[in-house]
Amino acid sequence: MRSVRARAALGATLVVAVALTAAGLAVLLVLRGNLTDRAGLEAEVTAREVAGELALGTPYAELELDDADSHPVQVTDEEGRVVAASEDLEAISGTGTAAAGPAPSAPVPAPAPDGDDDDGEDPGRGEVSTDTPDFVNGTATVDGESQEYRFAAVEATTRQGVTLTVHAGAPLAAEQEAVNTVRTSMLTGLPVMLLVVAGVTWLVTRRALRPVEGIRRELAAITASEDLARRVPEPESRDEIARLARTTNETLAVLEESVGRQRRFVADASHELRSPIASLRTQLEVGAAHPELLDVPGAVEDTVRLQALAADLLLLARLDAGERPGRTAVDLGALVREEVSQRVADRVPPQVSVADPGPFEVAGSRQQLARVIGNLLDNAERHAERSVALSVRAERQAVVVEVTDDGAGVPEAERERIFERFVRLDDARARDDGGAGLGLAIARDVAVRHGGTLAAGTAAGGGARFTLRLPAAPGPVR
After folding, report:
1. Which residues pair with 92 in a beta bridge?
2. Are 73 and 167 in contact (CB under 8 A)?
3. DSSP run (H or E) holding 468
């Protein structure tokens, strides 16, 4: 089944069917047991009444065994011979003997004495067993009609010391009729109940899933129109469907922002690539027409700039694709010294301050972290007046690298915007001097991929301060 409503209705119906069937069987078993116990109690009462008469010395012929229809009685001796039975009893089963009535040769008890015997002693009286009687189900035929009975067997001892067993039965017709009535009612009502459960579940599920259908239609419309600014309807309820709608809208918002950022990135990348490619093409065309006018240094400079921009775009693409940094141990102190040693020809050579003791190891990609340090130094050197300072220190299970300059600094309102791609605060600055606006964006992305942060602030002298914080390696890292 492809319909959630159909599956829910079917599942609820099956669960209710199993529950009702189990409950019905339990009710039938309890009802049958109670009615059977009641029949057994009636049979026991009758058996004990007859046993009491035998214990008092009543002769077999004088026993009150007239109610054969409702309580057939059969009395057997120690050898299993029938000595007394209800008058109309024609056949019986379940009492341990096939004979229904006493045989012609059945023993006749001696008459009960009226007083003391010759020795002057009281012959006493018999007794009835107080043990729990044995119960068994059987059949009896009385006046040509057979039915099932619950038989109770009670032992009695006569005055002469003869042990007799009284089998008395109580009919099970009422029990069978009650059980059959209940079973018929259940079999009749169960389908009706299941139809009601299925219908109610179908309607309730349909009502509950109605917002889902609205969400589906809106998502289909968004897919068809490619308009990520649209949002799915959010139900006023606070259930799972409302949370699903809110989560869907949040996802659409993130997706819209991501697609917009991607489109801006492509547009900015195309714009940034257009200038060096156009300049290089112009120089090559002029050189082809007039070799003596070819500006080789300018062509090389445009080529280097184009190569650097392509490398930045490729790195950003890898970061956006979720590329994970390596787990190599990198000493940031040594890495900083190495990066600074390669910048002796910079306009403003950086001053390095590395706190002792070292090393300051972090886990990550040495190449990407070197790119972060290099980009921060490039940015500081581009904006500094006379000095650039760089420091490394350990702080609360982290390694902190700070790069400061004595330039104009970064306005507080722009301290997050400068980390966006292709953003330059000084738009009037020439591209050759200001770069493409990718350095700080790459630096922050790499820092985040390494589990760290990169933030902009104000240096003590009023210039810009960039703080790179990376988690220190917890132990030996390979």
Report:
1. 140
2. yes
3. strand 464-471
CA–CA dist 449, 452 (Å, integer): 7
CA dist., res. 110 & res. 41, Å (int): 32
For 321-365, where are the alpha helices, taking DSSP H only?
332-341
Residue 463 pLDDT > 70 = yes
Q: Model confidence over 381-422: pLDDT tens digits?
A: 888 888 888 899 988 889 999 999 988 888 988 889 888 887
List, for residues 6-38, the tens digit of each pLDDT value. 888 888 889 999 998 999 899 999 988 899 899
**CA 237 to centroid of chain Cα atoms:** 22
Q: Residue 318 has what pLDDT? A: 80
The partner residues of 166 in beta bridges, in order of sequence, read 75, 154
Beta-carbon contacts of 140 under 8 Å, excluding residues fewer than 6 positions away, are: 72, 89, 91, 92, 93, 146, 147, 149, 169
Domains and CATH numbers, the chain: 1-102+124-225 (no CATH), 240-320 (1.10.287.130), 328-471 (3.30.565.10)
453 pLDDT higher than 90: yes
The helix/strand/coil state of 172 is coil
Q: Is the dihedral of CA 395, 398, 399, 401 positive or negative?
A: negative
Pairing of strands 361-364, 328-331: antiparallel
d(CA 345, CA 466): 22
